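=== Structural record ===
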Amino acid sequence: MMLPFVPSQRTRARFGSSARHHQKARQHLPRSFRPTLEGLEARALLNAGSLDPTFGTGGEVVTPFPDGSGVTGLVRQGDGKLVAGGPFGTVLALVRYNSDGTRDAYFATAGESTINLGINGPVALALQTDGKILVAGTSGTTDSDLTMVIARYLPTGFLDSTFGSGSGEVTIGPGFTANQVTVQADGKILVGGITVSQGTTIEDLVIVRLNSDGAMDTAFGVNGRAETTISGNAVPIPSGLGVEANGRIVAETANILLRPEPDWRGNAERLPLFRI
């Protein structure tokens, strides 16, 4: 059986003296050094890979697209907002979501932009440092009319009239597809795709570089366009496009990784090839 602790008179005096000492010491502390206690908000600790319950409904947002189409491109802005894009028919739909998954009412019309750009296949998205949104895709249905389409949107969700001679879009072709897009540090725009020639099974990887206003950068490749033949029979549709810190361009296809010089000049045989 444990007996309760009853402090003696001497113990009580010692505790009381200690308490008064600490109280006086605290009074002499500068206000910035005085400790304070603050309440902590409730937080839910999630397992890695679990859906985030603070996004949409149980971590999911569903936005119906007509004609059975869906999202093929997605980028995240610096403020946490998400821009998703995809075609239905020849109309491109862009939707911007707040970080919690709700529609951003300040983007285009009620958070959604629908413009007929003629793109009828998957699109790629990229963000510029000024918040403008780049979209690259392909219009046409046969080898003879497949054309690159590159459009630029303002952060408000409307086409940028300073891009592409006032129209907000640039077309290159026919004979080319657009599958990837990215932006260099100097603001120039890279678009990756393949060449398409009717009546032949040989397709080349093609990279186009545009100035920030959408005009072809004639200092790149031949008149702004570089093509290289990939060994083997694989169609070199680019699945990734990026720029290294030293300015070299990296294009990834299904089984080939290319890293050419920044201006892509010289013979294709001199380009280092890495099979992955």
Observations:
- Confidence is low (pLDDT under 50) at residues 10-26, 32-36, 265-276.
- The chain is about 5% helix and 30% strand.
